[in-house]
Amino acid sequence: MPLRVLHVDAGREWRGGQNQVRLLTRELGGRPGVAQLLVTRSAGALATRARASGVPVAGVSWDMGLDPRAWWGLLRAARRFRPDIVHVHESHALTLATWARRWMRPAPRLVAHRRVDFHVRPHGYWCDADAIIAVSDAVRRVLVADGVDAARVSVIPDGIDPGEIRAAAEAARDFRAELGLAPGTALAVNVAALVAHKDQATLVRAAAAARASRPDLHWAIAGDGPLRGGLVAQIEALGLADRVHLLGYVTEVDALIRQATVFVMSSREEGLGSVVLHALALGTPVVATAGGGLPEILSPEQLVPVGDAPHLAQRVREALERPPRAALPGRCTARAMADAVVALYRTLV
């Protein structure tokens, strides 16, 4: 009998976590002895892209985090599919799956995936999972500090498909030309949602600190979010409107990363930073703050303290002259991730 796995993710947005769900389910789809079904928002990008990868999808109505229609759709899918394991990929999915599991017979084992290093509520639903997958040691430490049984937490890093990324990076879009920059202009790129923990405010301050010594350096931030207005105001106040470019949401992120002179992450908190894995796969030099799990995939010479804009500016300038050498860790491929996840499933069933 195949191992039956029901994946659950709200899929109400498309970010790194949803791409990880797509990659994992795609990899598992080719494994003998594993049957799977993904429950997610019907009209979401995750549902569309997972289906395109050959993953069976049960679409449900899921317009808010704890949508009762999603709970009912999840329960109906589980009763038809009869999973051995329910694998949830974000906190709202965990809450709904915990409620729904009480009505499932036989009750499946519950695996919860944690991709961010935010604190969780002590004695909450994270403590009810039979196993938790943390994408880094940094995430594991936060979970254990918040009362989760350490024996239930396994560290399995996010994974990427290097070939897929390199192919996507060949997109014809020329970002320097769009920005009115000459070919070869030094360009530092950040790709992240415009939210507090990504801390692009520090990146903008680094741009100000670097301008005197590298007036030729431009900075591009790809992403959207609630802090866009504040960043626009900060850029204007620092007189950087001609040097720092807010690109909004960009679909061809791999092409942008490949065209960057240096890739920069300024996060205060970061589960692992899967977009950094894209930069490593493309051979783009990386400079980052030492937030969350980033030190687990980057070397000390690529890192600066969280919030330290002058030091970040210095490291970016150094990277323009002497690009740091870093390779994609072998444990951070989609195949390696799927191997480790299946091994964990087998310990539970």
Provide structural commentary.
By secondary structure, the chain is an alpha/beta fold. The chain folds into 2 domains: 3-159 and 333-348, Glycogen Phosphorylase B (Rossmann fold); 163-330, Glycogen Phosphorylase B (Rossmann fold), CATH 3.40.50.2000. The protein has helices spanning 16-29, 45-52, 68-81, 91-101, 137-145, 162-168, 175-178, 200-211, 228-237, 253-259, 274-282, 309-321, 334-348, and strands at 3-8, 34-41, 57-60, 85-88, 109-114, 131-134, 153-155, 187-191, 218-222, 244-248, 262-265, 286-289, 303-304. The strands form 2 sheets. The protein has a 7-stranded parallel β-sheet, with helices on both faces. It has a 6-stranded parallel β-sheet with strand order 10-9-8-11-12-13, with helices on both faces. Helix 1 packs across helix 13, helix 3 packs across helix 4 and helix 8 packs across helix 12 (309-321). The radius of gyration is 21 Å and the shape is elongated.
Q: What class do helices, strands and sheet pairing give?
A: alpha/beta
Identify the strand order in the major beta sheet. Answer: 3-2-1-4-5-6-7
Helix and strand sequence: EHEHEHEHEEHEHHEHEHEHEHEEHH
For the record, give the distance between the C-alpha atoms at the N and C termini, rounded to a whole number: 12 Å
Oligomer: single chain
- What is the count of structural domains? 2
Q: Examine the secondary-structure arrangement and name the CATH architecture of the largest domain.
A: 3-Layer(aba) Sandwich
Cα Rg: 21 Å
Strand content: 15-25%
What's the CATH C level of the largest domain?
Answer: Alpha Beta
Mean pLDDT figure: 96
The residue ranges in which pLDDT falls below 50 over 5 or more consecutive positions are none
Query: Would you identify the CATH H-level superfamily of the largest domain?
Result: Glycogen Phosphorylase B
- Tell me the overall shape: elongated
Helical content, roughly? Answer: 25-40%
Number of helices: 13
Biggest sheet architecture:
7 strands, parallel
The name CATH uses for the topology of the largest domain is: Rossmann fold
Could you tell me the number of beta strands?
Answer: 13
